[in-house]
Automatic annotation (TrEMBL):
<feature type="transmembrane region" description="Helical">
    <location>
        <begin position="129"/>
        <end position="152"/>
    </location>
</feature>
<dbReference type="Pfam" id="PF07730">
    <property type="entry name" value="HisKA_3"/>
</dbReference>
<feature type="transmembrane region" description="Helical">
    <location>
        <begin position="68"/>
        <end position="90"/>
    </location>
</feature>
<keyword id="KW-0597">Phosphoprotein</keyword>
<dbReference type="Pfam" id="PF13796">
    <property type="entry name" value="Sensor"/>
</dbReference>
<keyword id="KW-0808">Transferase</keyword>
<dbReference type="Pfam" id="PF02518">
    <property type="entry name" value="HATPase_c"/>
</dbReference>
<keyword id="KW-0472">Membrane</keyword>
<dbReference type="GO" id="GO:0000155">
    <property type="term" value="F:phosphorelay sensor kinase activity"/>
</dbReference>
<protein>
    <recommendedName>
        <fullName>histidine kinase</fullName>
        <ecNumber>2.7.13.3</ecNumber>
    </recommendedName>
</protein>
<feature type="domain" description="Histidine kinase/HSP90-like ATPase">
    <location>
        <begin position="339"/>
        <end position="429"/>
    </location>
</feature>
<feature type="transmembrane region" description="Helical">
    <location>
        <begin position="28"/>
        <end position="56"/>
    </location>
</feature>
<dbReference type="GO" id="GO:0046983">
    <property type="term" value="F:protein dimerization activity"/>
</dbReference>
<feature type="transmembrane region" description="Helical">
    <location>
        <begin position="181"/>
        <end position="203"/>
    </location>
</feature>
<keyword id="KW-0418">Kinase</keyword>
<dbReference type="InterPro" id="IPR050482">
    <property type="entry name" value="Sensor_HK_TwoCompSys"/>
</dbReference>
<keyword id="KW-0547">Nucleotide-binding</keyword>
Amino acid sequence: MTPQRPSHLAEALRRRDWLVSAWPWRALAYLVSTVPIAGVLAVGLLVIGAPLLAAVNAVRLHGRPPGIPLTLFLAVGSLTLLALAPIVSFPVAAVERWRLGLVDGRPLPASPWPGLAARYRTAAGWREVAYLFWLGGIAPVAYWVFLLLVLLDLGMVTSPWLVSDADPVVVWQPIETTGEAVPYAVVGVLLLPVLGYAAGLLATVQAAVARWALAWPVDAAALREVARSRTRLVGAYEAERRRIERDLHDGAQPRLTSLTLQLGLARLDVPEDSPASRPLAVAHDQARGLMVMLRQLVHGIRPQSLTDLGLAGAVRELADVATVAVTVHADIDGELPEIVETTAYFVVSEALGNVARHAGATRADVRLTRAGGDLVVEVSDDGRGGADPARGTGLTGLADRVAAADGRLLLSSPPGGPTLVRVELPCRR
């Protein structure tokens, strides 16, 4: 099977073919294209940073406060820098989002101009300002350190050709002869792949900082409204489901039971050789079949065993009728919300059904526990494993049902087994 191509630099850096792939060249292009941008920003920051550092040193070394002109310059310059930073950071951020595509194929949408006032009010604007200062203040230091390492290694590699009797080469210590330079050259050649990985690591760190700072922030208010909307929809769905269950259980089911009973009594009163005997028998059998179907429909909406026995008892009832040996461990003291009970029941039912149909297992275990205010449901088996939600709708539907209850489903099913389905359901009432 062809291995999946990495989509970003951090993923490519962990692969064995890093040095022979195109990723080192992409990382180098990213680093080189950073130099002019970071250089311009560094010069702008030095206009304020250098006098500020000189003033701090004067106070520290001589105990003298800076003069009034320098103080005014630093104050006005700092305020001007902070005032212009949210505006300057916008085009820089746009260029950085575009450049990030050199080393990261994951989409990072461009941010539209939100308005001048929004640049000073929003967290996204100040995150871009923070990235501006990082790019102009910290990145150049890292680049200088890396450049010194590269120059040192190049000096080691080329030292046999640079050394002469009249002009020794200094690498760690003076080298006066070619024989002395050869070991340094060998070490320098061996360090070239290390520099390749170091360049990739430097580009990876810068790309990670850029992605963190330039990604659109999550709209917390919108997320809360979506969560509230989903809660309302789930609540309305549960209420409607209970109404349908009640109408079927208290209305249609008793009337169908009465009809079945009347047809049975009528069969007793009609002679077997009567022309009406056979149609009456067929109608009676159909009514009984319809009653069984209706009972199954009601059970599918909310199992009666949940109401009568609670979640632990209903799960044990499922274990009793399973086609494999099932052990149930339940430690769920306290009352559970109805939607949590119903979801947990159907999780166990579907999971045990999958064990019977697909796993080839001889036994299964079901655990119901409370952990940190959540109900945790775990179903494990000793089957062949290899469960994949992409190959069927059972696990996908199960995950959708769990998500509707604001929970999450975790699946571990390596080839050869075992398989573990873990569901965490919040029990907030």
